[in-house]
Write a structure and sequence with these properties.
CATH topology of the largest domain: Dipeptide-binding Protein, domain 3
Strand content: 15-25%
Strand order of the largest sheet: 17-16-18-13-19
Shape: globular
Helix content: 25-40%
Number of domains: 3
CATH architecture of the largest domain: Roll
Amino acid sequence: MNRKWARLTGLLLAASLMLTLFVGVAQAQEQVLVIGWEQEPSQLSPRSDMAFAALATNFYARDVWDWDVNREIFPVMVEQVPTVGNGLVKTLDNGNTQVTYKLKAGLKWSDGQPITTADCEFNHFLRTNPGTLTYQRGTYPEVVESFEVVDDLTFVLTYNSPFPDYQSNAVASCSLPKHVFADTLAAEGNLDNHPYFSGQGVVGYGPYVFDQWVIGSQMSFVKNPLWDGQEPAFDRIILRFITDSAQMRNALQAGEIDVAFNFSDDQVDAYAAIPGVEVFGTPGVFGDAIWMNIGNGGHPALTDVNVRKAIIHGIDRASLAEDLVGPGTAVPKSWYPEQFWPEDLPRLEYDPELAKKLLDEAGWVDSNGNGTRDKDGVELVLRFFTTTRQLRMDYQVVIQEYLNEIGVGTQLLPVPANILFADFVDRGILDTGDFDLAIFALSANPLSPFADAPDWFGCDGIPTAENPNGNNGWGFCDPRYDELDLLVGKTVDEVQRKQYSDEAIKRFFEGQFWHGLYLRQTWYAIDTTTVDPATAKDVGTLSSNYFNKIEFWQPAK
Protein backbone atom coordinates (compact mmCIF):
# COMPACT_ATOMS: atom_id res chain seq x y z
CA MET A 1 0.00 0.00 0.00
CA ASN A 2 1.52 3.36 -0.96
CA ARG A 3 1.67 6.41 1.30
CA LYS A 4 -1.21 8.24 -0.35
CA TRP A 5 -3.69 5.39 0.05
CA ALA A 6 -2.48 4.53 3.52
CA ARG A 7 -3.32 8.03 4.72
CA LEU A 8 -6.60 8.09 2.81
CA THR A 9 -7.63 4.80 4.38
CA GLY A 10 -6.87 6.22 7.79
CA LEU A 11 -9.00 9.26 7.08
CA LEU A 12 -11.88 7.06 5.94
CA LEU A 13 -11.75 4.88 9.06
CA ALA A 14 -11.73 7.94 11.31
CA ALA A 15 -14.61 9.45 9.38
CA SER A 16 -16.67 6.28 9.63
CA LEU A 17 -16.44 6.36 13.41
CA MET A 18 -17.47 9.98 13.68
CA LEU A 19 -19.78 10.79 10.80
CA THR A 20 -22.48 9.36 8.61
CA LEU A 21 -21.55 7.41 5.50
CA PHE A 22 -22.53 10.33 3.30
CA VAL A 23 -20.26 12.79 5.09
CA GLY A 24 -17.48 10.22 5.18
CA VAL A 25 -17.62 9.82 1.41
CA ALA A 26 -17.59 13.60 0.97
CA GLN A 27 -14.49 13.86 3.12
CA ALA A 28 -12.77 11.14 1.17
CA GLN A 29 -13.27 13.15 -2.00
CA GLU A 30 -11.66 16.26 -0.58
CA GLN A 31 -8.22 16.92 -2.08
CA VAL A 32 -5.85 17.68 0.79
CA LEU A 33 -2.21 18.74 0.52
CA VAL A 34 -0.02 18.54 3.64
CA ILE A 35 3.21 20.56 3.68
CA GLY A 36 5.91 20.13 6.31
CA TRP A 37 6.62 23.50 7.95
CA GLU A 38 9.88 23.62 9.88
CA GLN A 39 9.19 26.76 11.91
CA GLU A 40 5.94 27.70 13.63
CA PRO A 41 5.50 31.48 13.48
CA SER A 42 5.05 33.38 16.72
CA GLN A 43 2.29 35.43 15.04
CA LEU A 44 0.99 36.02 11.54
CA SER A 45 2.75 38.33 9.10
CA PRO A 46 3.52 41.20 9.14
CA ARG A 47 3.36 41.29 12.94
CA SER A 48 5.92 38.50 12.85
CA ASP A 49 8.87 39.04 10.50
CA MET A 50 9.78 35.34 10.47
CA ALA A 51 10.26 33.97 6.95
CA PHE A 52 7.81 31.15 7.68
CA ALA A 53 5.13 33.67 8.66
CA ALA A 54 5.65 35.55 5.41
CA LEU A 55 5.59 32.26 3.46
CA ALA A 56 2.17 31.43 4.88
CA THR A 57 0.73 34.57 3.27
CA ASN A 58 1.24 32.88 -0.12
CA PHE A 59 -1.95 30.94 0.60
CA TYR A 60 -4.26 33.63 1.99
CA ALA A 61 -2.78 37.14 1.65
CA ARG A 62 -1.33 38.03 -1.74
CA ASP A 63 -0.23 41.56 -2.61
CA VAL A 64 0.27 43.82 -5.62
CA TRP A 65 2.80 41.67 -7.55
CA ASP A 66 5.31 38.85 -7.18
CA TRP A 67 8.21 36.99 -8.84
CA ASP A 68 8.38 33.55 -10.46
CA VAL A 69 11.09 30.88 -10.55
CA ASN A 70 13.02 32.90 -13.15
CA ARG A 71 12.81 36.00 -10.95
CA GLU A 72 10.51 37.63 -13.45
CA ILE A 73 7.80 39.85 -12.04
CA PHE A 74 4.10 39.23 -12.63
CA PRO A 75 0.96 41.16 -11.56
CA VAL A 76 -1.34 39.89 -8.79
CA MET A 77 -3.65 42.62 -7.49
CA VAL A 78 -2.74 45.11 -10.22
CA GLU A 79 -3.68 45.06 -13.90
CA GLN A 80 -0.04 45.29 -14.93
CA VAL A 81 3.33 45.84 -13.30
CA PRO A 82 4.28 49.53 -13.67
CA THR A 83 7.13 50.29 -16.05
CA VAL A 84 8.38 53.27 -18.01
CA GLY A 85 7.34 51.43 -21.17
CA ASN A 86 3.66 51.12 -20.23
CA GLY A 87 3.50 54.72 -19.05
CA LEU A 88 2.88 53.94 -15.38
CA VAL A 89 6.32 55.14 -14.26
CA LYS A 90 7.42 58.72 -14.78
CA THR A 91 10.38 60.88 -13.86
CA LEU A 92 9.12 64.21 -12.58
CA ASP A 93 10.74 67.55 -13.42
CA ASN A 94 12.60 67.46 -10.10
CA GLY A 95 13.99 63.99 -10.92
CA ASN A 96 11.76 62.08 -8.51
CA THR A 97 10.22 58.77 -9.55
CA GLN A 98 6.43 58.52 -9.67
CA VAL A 99 4.62 55.18 -10.01
CA THR A 100 0.95 54.66 -10.84
CA TYR A 101 -0.79 51.50 -9.59
CA LYS A 102 -4.05 50.29 -11.17
CA LEU A 103 -5.91 47.59 -9.22
CA LYS A 104 -7.92 44.98 -11.12
CA ALA A 105 -11.65 45.67 -11.10
CA GLY A 106 -13.89 43.43 -9.01
CA LEU A 107 -11.33 42.16 -6.49
CA LYS A 108 -12.82 40.99 -3.19
CA TRP A 109 -11.49 40.17 0.22
CA SER A 110 -12.24 36.67 1.47
CA ASP A 111 -15.20 38.03 3.47
CA GLY A 112 -16.77 39.50 0.32
CA GLN A 113 -15.83 43.15 0.86
CA PRO A 114 -14.41 44.95 -2.21
CA ILE A 115 -10.69 45.67 -2.42
CA THR A 116 -10.09 49.34 -3.22
CA THR A 117 -7.38 51.97 -3.03
CA ALA A 118 -8.68 52.80 0.46
CA ASP A 119 -7.04 49.54 1.61
CA CYS A 120 -3.76 50.49 -0.09
CA GLU A 121 -3.89 53.96 1.48
CA PHE A 122 -4.46 52.34 4.89
CA ASN A 123 -1.37 50.14 4.40
CA HIS A 124 0.60 53.27 3.45
CA PHE A 125 -0.56 54.95 6.66
CA LEU A 126 0.61 51.99 8.75
CA ARG A 127 4.00 51.95 7.05
CA THR A 128 4.62 55.66 7.54
CA ASN A 129 3.48 55.75 11.18
CA PRO A 130 5.71 53.40 13.22
CA GLY A 131 3.59 53.61 16.37
CA THR A 132 0.63 51.93 14.70
CA LEU A 133 2.06 48.41 14.39
CA THR A 134 5.34 46.70 15.26
CA TYR A 135 6.70 45.34 11.98
CA GLN A 136 9.54 45.98 9.58
CA ARG A 137 9.11 48.87 7.19
CA GLY A 138 12.48 49.01 5.47
CA THR A 139 13.29 52.35 3.89
CA TYR A 140 9.69 52.97 2.83
CA PRO A 141 9.14 55.86 5.29
CA GLU A 142 12.45 57.44 4.26
CA VAL A 143 12.10 57.22 0.47
CA VAL A 144 8.36 57.67 -0.17
CA GLU A 145 7.24 61.29 -0.49
CA SER A 146 3.50 60.89 -1.03
CA PHE A 147 0.57 58.57 -1.68
CA GLU A 148 -2.34 59.92 -3.71
CA VAL A 149 -5.67 58.21 -4.35
CA VAL A 150 -6.96 58.91 -7.86
CA ASP A 151 -10.07 56.75 -7.73
CA ASP A 152 -11.24 53.45 -6.24
CA LEU A 153 -8.80 51.47 -8.40
CA THR A 154 -5.93 53.89 -9.05
CA PHE A 155 -3.34 55.45 -6.79
CA VAL A 156 0.02 57.16 -7.27
CA LEU A 157 3.16 56.60 -5.20
CA THR A 158 5.81 59.31 -5.47
CA TYR A 159 9.35 58.85 -4.18
CA ASN A 160 11.40 61.75 -2.86
CA SER A 161 14.26 61.11 -5.28
CA PRO A 162 15.04 59.01 -8.35
CA PHE A 163 14.21 55.43 -7.30
CA PRO A 164 15.27 52.72 -9.77
CA ASP A 165 14.14 49.82 -7.52
CA TYR A 166 10.45 50.77 -7.48
CA GLN A 167 9.52 47.18 -8.45
CA SER A 168 11.48 45.43 -5.71
CA ASN A 169 12.01 47.83 -2.79
CA ALA A 170 9.67 50.18 -0.93
CA VAL A 171 6.78 48.89 -3.05
CA ALA A 172 3.24 49.92 -2.13
CA SER A 173 1.23 47.28 -0.27
CA CYS A 174 -2.50 46.55 -0.19
CA SER A 175 -2.47 43.25 1.73
CA LEU A 176 -4.08 44.31 5.04
CA PRO A 177 -7.83 45.06 4.68
CA LYS A 178 -8.76 48.43 6.14
CA HIS A 179 -12.21 47.36 7.32
CA VAL A 180 -10.70 44.65 9.54
CA PHE A 181 -8.29 46.97 11.36
CA ALA A 182 -9.56 50.55 11.17
CA ASP A 183 -11.87 50.49 14.21
CA THR A 184 -9.24 48.95 16.46
CA LEU A 185 -6.64 51.46 15.31
CA ALA A 186 -9.03 54.34 15.94
CA ALA A 187 -9.89 53.05 19.41
CA GLU A 188 -6.46 51.92 20.60
CA GLY A 189 -3.97 53.68 18.33
CA ASN A 190 -1.98 50.48 17.87
CA LEU A 191 -2.60 47.09 16.24
CA ASP A 192 0.03 44.94 17.98
CA ASN A 193 -2.57 42.95 19.90
CA HIS A 194 -5.16 42.65 17.15
CA PRO A 195 -6.59 39.09 17.10
CA TYR A 196 -5.89 38.85 13.35
CA PHE A 197 -2.21 38.21 14.08
CA SER A 198 -3.04 35.25 16.31
CA GLY A 199 -5.19 33.72 13.58
CA GLN A 200 -8.63 35.00 14.58
CA GLY A 201 -10.91 36.62 12.03
CA VAL A 202 -8.25 36.57 9.32
CA VAL A 203 -9.38 38.19 6.07
CA GLY A 204 -7.18 38.21 2.99
CA TYR A 205 -6.88 37.98 -0.77
CA GLY A 206 -5.54 34.70 -2.07
CA PRO A 207 -6.46 31.30 -3.49
CA TYR A 208 -7.18 30.04 0.03
CA VAL A 209 -8.89 31.34 3.16
CA PHE A 210 -7.22 31.11 6.57
CA ASP A 211 -9.07 28.32 8.39
CA GLN A 212 -7.48 27.26 11.67
CA TRP A 213 -4.29 27.49 13.69
CA VAL A 214 -3.71 24.70 16.19
CA ILE A 215 -0.77 25.98 18.23
CA GLY A 216 2.11 23.52 18.26
CA SER A 217 0.52 21.33 15.58
CA GLN A 218 -0.61 22.87 12.30
CA MET A 219 -2.18 25.70 10.34
CA SER A 220 -4.82 25.07 7.66
CA PHE A 221 -6.43 26.88 4.72
CA VAL A 222 -9.47 26.10 2.59
CA LYS A 223 -10.26 27.05 -0.99
CA ASN A 224 -11.41 30.65 -1.43
CA PRO A 225 -14.60 30.81 -3.54
CA LEU A 226 -14.05 34.56 -4.09
CA TRP A 227 -10.54 34.18 -5.53
CA ASP A 228 -10.47 35.60 -9.07
CA GLY A 229 -7.43 33.69 -10.29
CA GLN A 230 -6.78 30.05 -11.16
CA GLU A 231 -9.03 27.80 -9.08
CA PRO A 232 -6.87 25.61 -6.84
CA ALA A 233 -7.05 21.85 -7.41
CA PHE A 234 -6.47 21.11 -3.72
CA ASP A 235 -9.44 21.88 -1.48
CA ARG A 236 -7.44 22.18 1.72
CA ILE A 237 -3.82 23.00 2.56
CA ILE A 238 -2.36 21.92 5.90
CA LEU A 239 0.97 23.26 7.17
CA ARG A 240 2.22 20.63 9.62
CA PHE A 241 4.74 22.03 12.11
CA ILE A 242 7.78 19.72 12.27
CA THR A 243 10.85 21.41 13.69
CA ASP A 244 13.23 18.43 13.69
CA SER A 245 15.02 17.67 10.40
CA ALA A 246 14.98 13.88 10.82
CA GLN A 247 11.31 13.89 11.82
CA MET A 248 10.47 15.93 8.71
CA ARG A 249 12.09 13.36 6.45
CA ASN A 250 10.47 10.48 8.32
CA ALA A 251 7.07 12.18 8.01
CA LEU A 252 7.42 12.36 4.23
CA GLN A 253 8.53 8.74 4.04
CA ALA A 254 5.59 7.63 6.22
CA GLY A 255 3.08 9.57 4.14
CA GLU A 256 2.20 11.96 6.95
CA ILE A 257 3.11 14.94 4.75
CA ASP A 258 3.20 15.37 0.97
CA VAL A 259 5.85 18.08 0.65
CA ALA A 260 9.04 18.91 2.50
CA PHE A 261 11.09 21.95 1.54
CA ASN A 262 13.94 24.22 2.57
CA PHE A 263 16.00 21.32 3.90
CA SER A 264 19.78 21.58 3.85
CA ASP A 265 22.02 20.23 1.11
CA ASP A 266 23.27 17.37 3.24
CA GLN A 267 19.70 15.96 3.32
CA VAL A 268 19.16 15.87 -0.45
CA ASP A 269 20.36 12.30 -1.02
CA ALA A 270 18.28 10.94 1.86
CA TYR A 271 15.13 12.60 0.51
CA ALA A 272 15.87 11.44 -3.03
CA ALA A 273 16.17 7.86 -1.78
CA ILE A 274 12.56 7.80 -0.55
CA PRO A 275 10.46 5.75 -3.03
CA GLY A 276 7.92 7.82 -4.91
CA VAL A 277 9.53 11.14 -3.98
CA GLU A 278 10.95 13.64 -6.46
CA VAL A 279 13.51 16.21 -5.32
CA PHE A 280 14.33 19.46 -7.09
CA GLY A 281 16.06 22.70 -6.19
CA THR A 282 15.89 26.38 -7.09
CA PRO A 283 18.48 29.15 -6.68
CA GLY A 284 18.34 30.26 -3.07
CA VAL A 285 18.67 33.56 -1.27
CA PHE A 286 19.51 32.09 2.12
CA GLY A 287 23.00 31.56 3.46
CA ASP A 288 23.62 30.49 7.04
CA ALA A 289 26.11 32.65 8.90
CA ILE A 290 27.57 33.46 12.30
CA TRP A 291 26.13 36.74 13.59
CA MET A 292 27.90 38.59 16.41
CA ASN A 293 26.24 40.93 18.87
CA ILE A 294 28.63 43.85 18.62
CA GLY A 295 26.54 46.73 19.93
CA ASN A 296 23.31 45.58 21.54
CA GLY A 297 24.34 44.23 24.92
CA GLY A 298 26.57 41.34 23.84
CA HIS A 299 29.74 40.16 25.55
CA PRO A 300 32.12 43.11 26.06
CA ALA A 301 34.88 41.35 24.11
CA LEU A 302 32.79 41.58 20.95
CA THR A 303 32.97 45.37 20.90
CA ASP A 304 36.59 44.93 19.75
CA VAL A 305 36.78 44.28 16.01
CA ASN A 306 40.05 42.36 16.43
CA VAL A 307 38.38 39.92 18.84
CA ARG A 308 35.65 39.39 16.27
CA LYS A 309 38.25 38.74 13.59
CA ALA A 310 40.12 36.36 15.90
CA ILE A 311 36.99 34.27 16.46
CA ILE A 312 36.54 33.80 12.71
CA HIS A 313 40.24 33.16 12.05
CA GLY A 314 39.87 30.37 14.61
CA ILE A 315 37.16 28.52 12.62
CA ASP A 316 37.88 26.48 9.50
CA ARG A 317 34.69 27.44 7.70
CA ALA A 318 35.72 25.93 4.36
CA SER A 319 36.30 22.48 5.88
CA LEU A 320 33.05 22.69 7.82
CA ALA A 321 31.10 23.42 4.64
CA GLU A 322 32.74 20.47 2.87
CA ASP A 323 32.31 18.04 5.75
CA LEU A 324 28.91 19.02 7.15
CA VAL A 325 27.06 20.25 4.06
CA GLY A 326 28.77 18.60 1.09
CA PRO A 327 31.67 18.75 -1.39
CA GLY A 328 31.89 21.98 -3.31
CA THR A 329 29.75 23.97 -0.88
CA ALA A 330 30.71 27.65 -1.05
CA VAL A 331 31.46 29.88 1.93
CA PRO A 332 30.14 33.33 0.98
CA LYS A 333 32.21 36.44 1.53
CA SER A 334 29.22 38.67 2.15
CA TRP A 335 25.55 38.73 3.04
CA TYR A 336 25.01 40.47 -0.28
CA PRO A 337 24.46 38.19 -3.31
CA GLU A 338 27.67 37.39 -5.15
CA GLN A 339 26.73 39.32 -8.32
CA PHE A 340 27.07 42.55 -6.34
CA TRP A 341 30.42 41.85 -4.62
CA PRO A 342 33.32 44.24 -5.28
CA GLU A 343 36.19 42.50 -7.07
CA ASP A 344 38.57 43.17 -4.18
CA LEU A 345 36.26 42.06 -1.37
CA PRO A 346 38.49 40.18 1.15
CA ARG A 347 37.81 37.05 3.19
CA LEU A 348 38.95 36.03 6.67
CA GLU A 349 40.77 32.70 6.27
CA TYR A 350 41.37 30.00 8.86
CA ASP A 351 44.50 30.94 10.83
CA PRO A 352 44.41 29.84 14.48
CA GLU A 353 47.84 31.28 15.27
CA LEU A 354 46.75 34.70 14.03
CA ALA A 355 43.57 34.29 16.08
CA LYS A 356 45.59 33.69 19.25
CA LYS A 357 47.85 36.65 18.49
CA LEU A 358 44.91 39.00 18.00
CA LEU A 359 43.33 37.87 21.26
CA ASP A 360 46.60 38.32 23.13
CA GLU A 361 47.02 41.82 21.73
CA ALA A 362 43.45 42.67 22.73
CA GLY A 363 44.29 41.71 26.33
CA TRP A 364 42.25 38.51 26.46
CA VAL A 365 44.62 35.97 28.02
CA ASP A 366 44.24 32.86 30.16
CA SER A 367 45.37 34.41 33.45
CA ASN A 368 44.17 31.58 35.72
CA GLY A 369 45.19 28.60 33.59
CA ASN A 370 41.68 27.15 33.19
CA GLY A 371 41.90 27.09 29.39
CA THR A 372 39.55 30.04 28.82
CA ARG A 373 40.79 33.57 28.20
CA ASP A 374 39.74 36.40 30.49
CA LYS A 375 40.23 40.12 30.96
CA ASP A 376 39.57 42.32 33.98
CA GLY A 377 37.93 39.40 35.73
CA VAL A 378 35.55 38.61 32.84
CA GLU A 379 35.76 35.16 31.25
CA LEU A 380 35.58 34.99 27.45
CA VAL A 381 32.57 32.66 27.37
CA LEU A 382 29.98 33.44 24.69
CA ARG A 383 26.27 32.61 24.58
CA PHE A 384 25.90 30.80 21.26
CA PHE A 385 22.34 30.45 19.92
CA THR A 386 20.75 28.81 16.90
CA THR A 387 17.50 27.12 15.93
CA THR A 388 16.81 23.41 16.36
CA ARG A 389 17.67 22.64 12.71
CA GLN A 390 20.07 19.68 12.98
CA LEU A 391 22.75 21.02 10.64
CA ARG A 392 22.98 24.26 12.59
CA MET A 393 23.33 22.38 15.85
CA ASP A 394 26.06 20.23 14.26
CA TYR A 395 27.85 23.44 13.25
CA GLN A 396 27.58 24.71 16.81
CA VAL A 397 29.24 21.63 18.26
CA VAL A 398 32.22 21.71 15.90
CA ILE A 399 32.65 25.48 16.17
CA GLN A 400 32.73 25.09 19.94
CA GLU A 401 35.69 22.72 19.53
CA TYR A 402 37.50 25.16 17.23
CA LEU A 403 37.00 28.05 19.64
CA ASN A 404 38.15 26.00 22.62
CA GLU A 405 41.47 25.61 20.81
CA ILE A 406 42.03 29.38 20.87
CA GLY A 407 40.78 29.87 24.42
CA VAL A 408 37.24 31.07 23.70
CA GLY A 409 34.45 29.33 25.59
CA THR A 410 30.87 28.94 24.39
CA GLN A 411 27.50 27.95 25.83
CA LEU A 412 25.51 26.14 23.14
CA LEU A 413 21.86 27.19 23.19
CA PRO A 414 19.63 25.78 20.43
CA VAL A 415 16.08 27.13 20.78
CA PRO A 416 12.84 27.03 18.78
CA ALA A 417 12.81 29.49 15.89
CA ASN A 418 9.79 31.41 17.18
CA ILE A 419 11.74 32.24 20.35
CA LEU A 420 14.94 33.19 18.56
CA PHE A 421 13.22 35.34 15.92
CA ALA A 422 10.38 36.90 17.94
CA ASP A 423 10.42 40.68 17.86
CA PHE A 424 11.41 43.04 20.65
CA VAL A 425 7.89 43.41 22.03
CA ASP A 426 7.66 39.62 22.40
CA ARG A 427 11.15 39.37 23.95
CA GLY A 428 12.83 37.68 21.01
CA ILE A 429 16.42 36.67 21.74
CA LEU A 430 17.95 38.41 18.72
CA ASP A 431 15.95 41.62 18.89
CA THR A 432 16.54 42.07 22.62
CA GLY A 433 20.27 41.42 22.17
CA ASP A 434 20.21 38.53 24.61
CA PHE A 435 22.96 36.62 22.77
CA ASP A 436 26.63 36.83 21.78
CA LEU A 437 26.84 34.55 18.74
CA ALA A 438 24.05 33.09 16.63
CA ILE A 439 23.73 30.92 13.53
CA PHE A 440 20.80 31.61 11.21
CA ALA A 441 20.00 32.85 7.71
CA LEU A 442 18.66 36.22 6.63
CA SER A 443 17.72 36.46 2.98
CA ALA A 444 19.26 39.09 0.74
CA ASN A 445 17.66 40.66 -2.31
CA PRO A 446 18.93 38.97 -5.50
CA LEU A 447 17.30 41.70 -7.59
CA SER A 448 19.18 44.74 -6.29
CA PRO A 449 22.26 45.82 -4.28
CA PHE A 450 19.98 48.11 -2.26
CA ALA A 451 19.90 46.52 1.21
CA ASP A 452 16.89 48.47 2.48
CA ALA A 453 19.13 48.93 5.49
CA PRO A 454 17.48 50.72 8.43
CA ASP A 455 15.55 47.80 9.94
CA TRP A 456 18.34 45.25 9.83
CA PHE A 457 21.64 47.14 9.61
CA GLY A 458 20.98 50.82 10.29
CA CYS A 459 21.90 52.73 13.41
CA ASP A 460 18.21 53.57 13.86
CA GLY A 461 17.27 49.90 13.52
CA ILE A 462 18.62 48.75 16.89
CA PRO A 463 15.49 47.65 18.81
CA THR A 464 14.63 49.45 22.02
CA ALA A 465 11.49 50.02 24.06
CA GLU A 466 11.16 53.38 22.27
CA ASN A 467 11.89 51.80 18.86
CA PRO A 468 10.55 48.22 18.93
CA ASN A 469 10.22 48.06 15.12
CA GLY A 470 13.92 47.58 14.41
CA ASN A 471 15.54 44.22 13.70
CA ASN A 472 19.20 45.18 14.08
CA GLY A 473 19.65 43.02 17.16
CA TRP A 474 23.41 42.68 16.57
CA GLY A 475 23.85 46.45 16.97
CA PHE A 476 25.83 47.24 13.81
CA CYS A 477 25.99 51.02 13.50
CA ASP A 478 27.93 52.81 10.77
CA PRO A 479 26.39 56.15 9.70
CA ARG A 480 28.38 56.13 6.49
CA TYR A 481 26.96 52.71 5.62
CA ASP A 482 23.43 54.02 6.22
CA GLU A 483 24.17 56.98 3.95
CA LEU A 484 25.63 54.78 1.23
CA ASP A 485 22.71 52.37 1.22
CA LEU A 486 20.25 55.20 0.69
CA LEU A 487 22.44 56.51 -2.13
CA VAL A 488 22.38 53.06 -3.74
CA GLY A 489 18.60 53.12 -3.51
CA LYS A 490 18.17 56.42 -5.37
CA THR A 491 21.05 56.42 -7.85
CA VAL A 492 20.07 55.70 -11.44
CA ASP A 493 23.50 55.93 -13.08
CA GLU A 494 24.82 52.35 -13.06
CA VAL A 495 28.50 53.27 -12.72
CA GLN A 496 27.89 55.63 -9.80
CA ARG A 497 25.51 53.14 -8.19
CA LYS A 498 28.16 50.41 -8.39
CA GLN A 499 30.66 52.70 -6.67
CA TYR A 500 28.25 53.36 -3.83
CA SER A 501 27.31 49.70 -3.45
CA ASP A 502 30.96 48.59 -3.52
CA GLU A 503 31.78 50.97 -0.69
CA ALA A 504 28.67 49.92 1.26
CA ILE A 505 29.49 46.22 0.93
CA LYS A 506 33.07 46.84 2.07
CA ARG A 507 31.91 48.80 5.11
CA PHE A 508 29.46 45.99 5.90
CA PHE A 509 32.44 43.59 5.78
CA GLU A 510 34.54 45.86 7.99
CA GLY A 511 31.83 45.74 10.64
CA GLN A 512 32.80 42.07 11.14
CA PHE A 513 29.44 41.12 12.63
CA TRP A 514 28.37 38.74 9.82
CA HIS A 515 30.48 35.73 8.80
CA GLY A 516 29.24 33.32 6.15
CA LEU A 517 29.14 29.56 6.72
CA TYR A 518 27.50 28.16 3.59
CA LEU A 519 25.13 29.00 0.77
CA ARG A 520 22.22 26.76 0.03
CA GLN A 521 19.68 26.12 -2.67
CA THR A 522 16.02 25.90 -1.81
CA TRP A 523 15.19 22.20 -2.01
CA TYR A 524 11.77 20.59 -2.43
CA ALA A 525 10.80 16.95 -1.96
CA ILE A 526 7.37 16.02 -3.32
CA ASP A 527 5.37 12.83 -2.91
CA THR A 528 4.51 11.99 -6.53
CA THR A 529 1.56 9.84 -5.44
CA THR A 530 -0.13 13.03 -4.21
CA VAL A 531 1.24 15.86 -6.35
CA ASP A 532 2.12 16.00 -10.04
CA PRO A 533 5.66 17.41 -9.68
CA ALA A 534 5.63 18.88 -13.18
CA THR A 535 3.00 21.39 -11.99
CA ALA A 536 4.89 22.38 -8.85
CA LYS A 537 8.23 23.63 -10.16
CA ASP A 538 7.28 27.20 -11.02
CA VAL A 539 7.86 28.46 -7.51
CA GLY A 540 9.08 31.70 -6.05
CA THR A 541 12.76 32.09 -5.25
CA LEU A 542 12.63 34.92 -2.71
CA SER A 543 12.48 34.23 1.01
CA SER A 544 8.76 34.88 1.28
CA ASN A 545 7.21 33.48 -1.90
CA TYR A 546 8.06 29.79 -2.36
CA PHE A 547 4.35 28.91 -2.70
CA ASN A 548 3.17 31.91 -4.69
CA LYS A 549 1.74 29.67 -7.44
CA ILE A 550 0.24 26.99 -5.22
CA GLU A 551 -3.08 27.33 -7.06
CA PHE A 552 -1.46 25.76 -10.15
CA TRP A 553 -0.31 22.61 -8.32
CA GLN A 554 -2.22 19.55 -9.50
CA PRO A 555 -2.90 16.17 -7.84
CA ALA A 556 -0.97 13.19 -9.12
CA LYS A 557 -2.39 11.69 -12.29
